[in-house]
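#struct-queue
[09:14] JT: dropping the first one here, sequence first, then the structure tokens:
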Amino acid sequence: MLKQHYSEIIIGAGIAGLSYAYKSEADFLLIERSSQLGGSWQSRNYKNSIYEFGPNSFMNRSEGLEEMIDTIGFRDQVISHDFKKSKRYLCQNDQLKLASPSSLIFSDLLSLQAKLSVLREPFLSNESQSDDESIHDFISRRFNTELADLLGHALKGIWAGDAKMLSAQAALPFLKELEDSYGSIFAGLIKKPKAPKKQTNTLQTCSFINGMSSFCEALGTYIGEEQILRETDARLLSYDGERYLLEINSQQITCDHLILATKAYQAAEFLFLVYPNLGELLNRIYYADIELSAFTLGRNLIKPSLIKTFDAFGFINANPDSSLMGTIFSSELFPERQLERELLFTSFSRPSVAGSQSPANELSRILQAYVSTKLRVEDFKLIDQQLFKQAIPQYNIGYLSIMSQINNELPSSLKLLGNYIGGVAFKDTIKRSFALACQVKSSSARMTL
């Protein structure tokens, strides 16, 4: 039975809403439109393995996530392996090439001219042609176009977007800060004071026995199912300056603080009736579509001498004009997920357009060098495929201006959460959720006094 009033109502039970609810000490109600918690954290089973249609893993130095794992007693569900032993590849001209700091120096990933541009960078002017330049323009200016292209390919695994559109100041603020503070990225990396090391443990790539989404369900259990409404829509009716009025399951309910832990365009739809200007601004944040596909390939097809190649995280595709952006070696990420007779891949692609090749077609060409026979498209068994519309927010040129206007319009009783604010990595989302929960707690305490 719902109460008539709550201190906080949280809309959206993805990792942002769950993290906020975990940290909140208020009387809250968490509302989720779907039947499952976790939002984009979607773990799917194939035989005794798992593939993710969402985040594939996390680092054991993700402080907020680590805290929640220990608090809810989920540590025994963590699986991990040494990050340094997890190879990552860049695919150039249909060849998998090891991508690491040392390989950038000693391999043919970059030309000699591109490598020398790193040494020249500290002596360049830091005058930009624009206050808000793209990542590609920024790296081209500081180094050269070849290095900018390489970074652009690498960023596909994070943004699934275009480095010629992404804002350097918004998407790579650390590098921009080095230039602004030290006049050089290279010099800044050397001169910038190092923060005290908080972790002494070895860096690990981690997941959970039953996949990333299993943690979200466990977190929901810890928070309390009585405070969570699943398969529920909410509608904002009004705000009188003190309380919000919402319609939930045909019942009118009020709250003091409203927390929107959704995608920007979903927050826009929710707010339009009461805050039309804010809704219009949120709708201006662009999201990229992404298509995810899960394939298997028979282990017997791989040359025995090259099977260790796939003992890796996966690859980013640097081939030009390719719809396939990259592939995760899902069954090889952790020993617990290996299949006896198959390799399991999860590919991420731009949505198919006329004339573009399918992910399986591109995989068959890229992996041809590692098999004993002529690799065919039909050798890849498609087990799952889904197009995610408006999946990943893009911090494009103009994003910072939009966010500035949003912050000017935002009332103190309304909080926005999600990976469209403060970084697309979920560790950044968790950090912001924790900070806002503490902020609301402090403001409520001041009002009580």
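[09:21] JT: and here's the second one, same format:
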Amino acid sequence: MTHDLAVIGSGPGGYVCAIRAAQLGMDVAVVEKEPTFGGTCLNIGCIPSKALLHTSELFEAAGHHFAGFGIGVDTPKLDLDAMLGHKDKTVEASVAGVEYLFKKNKITAYRGVGSLAGPGQVTVTADDGATQSVEAKHIVIATGSDSTPLPGVEIDERRVVTSTGALTLGKVPDHLVVVGAGVIGLELGSVWRRLGAEVTVVEFLDRILPGMDDEVAKQSQRLFAKQGMTFRLGHKVAAVDGSGDRLDVAVEPAAGGDAEHLAADVVLVAIGRRPYTEGLGLDAVGIATDERGRIPVDRHYRTSADNMFAIGDVIAGPMLAHKAEDEGVAVAEIAAGELGHVNYDAIPAVVYTMPEIASVGRTEQELKDAGIAYRAGKFPFSANGRARAMGTKDGFVKILADAATDRVLGAHIVGPVAGEMIQELAVLIEFAGAAEDLARVSHAHPTLSEAIREAAFAAWNKPIHL
């Protein structure tokens, strides 16, 4: 059977691409090697981690913050099995939703490992070794990424784990060592800290959250340290010895020097992700990857092979589920003969810790490096009435506007529900709005979003409530 479009991979990029293509009248096929749809994000990434983040926040609030609001409760007891069960039910509902959408949009699903056999041809190999050939006018590679290994450290997903194993620990470790101070390490580290673990974060660089705004990273680190996390910045994990009852973790200065040894119960390796192209058969169609294993594409996501596209984590750009979704929509529209595009300046990034951290557009350092004159407007949540009422006063909103045109070029939030509030600023940047435009928009009172308006006032002129 020949399809109009075949997608290899059913993660956020792949399944959204497939659905959008079907909506545009195309006959669509999806090839998926795992038992369930949804890819890393829905099964072992975004969705289950957010379930644990939320429930662990509730657990900590009940144990440490309710009394301050006049709510007296007994010391909460952790039922880890029930908490993990909630996580699993959330995942099951999400992946079932994708399967329903495939049926609703008459998308043909092929189960097995997909590999490129030639122009317009995909070979699907099932678990039992049986193969079948799928033909399509257009092929989209949306195979995502997997965890980057730490050289010399063996992952067993029990004591030395990636994000996958960190979502299924059978008990709370006494000491968790997190290797990498990026989004995944900080999110999962914060989950287990709230549930009672001592958490040490080891980061090769001299800062956390590489790529995010410097001020955001510095203040966030102070807040995490205040919560109980310990940081070893400018250090690396040289070895993990699992021969004893506890893990022996050798930590060395990145610049060289003597190692210190940490005793740990679990080590989480979270040093990044790498494109997943293993066994994909790129050679069969003449596609070569770059030095980081990514598939080069043009501005329309076309690879060097005819009628073949690539999206998401296998191409350049931030490894974000919603970035892959946007690219999936664009590719479906392009394959259908329409216009599709993605504005990468308006893609937000969120760290779902407590407080949350969110960013969209340029950082201050990026503007300085580009020689762009700008004004920075900043407003703290400590001056926001709703934040005071909620007891969530940590953090701030910062808006960066072009000094000459007042156009907003970047925005950064550390604070409660920052991941929700950043969308207002993403819309503003998408439509080339100015700080004054946002400052003149009425915001309901009392709301956390008033801090955004005040930051816009500060970038344009002066804040009202500071």
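[09:30] RK: nice, looked through the second one.
[09:31] RK: The two ends are 66 Å apart (CA to CA).
[09:31] JT: good to know. The domain at 346-460 is CATH 3.30.390.30 (Enolase-like; domain 1).
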